[in-house]
Amino acid sequence: MNAAPSEIHFTSGGTEADNWALRGIAYSLKEKGNHIITAETEHPAVIDTCKDLEKEGFDVSFLFTDNIGSVHPHDLEAEIRPETILISIMHSNNEVGTINLVHKYAEAAHEAGVLFHSDLVQSYGKIPIDVKLLDVDLGSVSSHKIYGPKGIGALYIRQGIEIEQLLFGGHQERNRRGGTENVPGIVGFGKAAELRASRLEQDSIRLKNLAASFFERLSEEVGGVKINGHPSRRIPGHLSIVFDGVDGEALLMNLDTTGISASAGAACSSGAIKMSSVLKAIGLSEDEALGTLRVSFGRDNSEEDVSVAVSAIKEHVARLRKTIPEAVSS
Ligand SMILES: Cc1ncc(COP(=O)(O)O)c(C=O)c1O
Question: Where do the domains of the chain lie, and which CATH numbers do they carry?
Answer without folding.
Answer: 5-181 (3.40.640.10), 200-328 (3.90.1150.10)
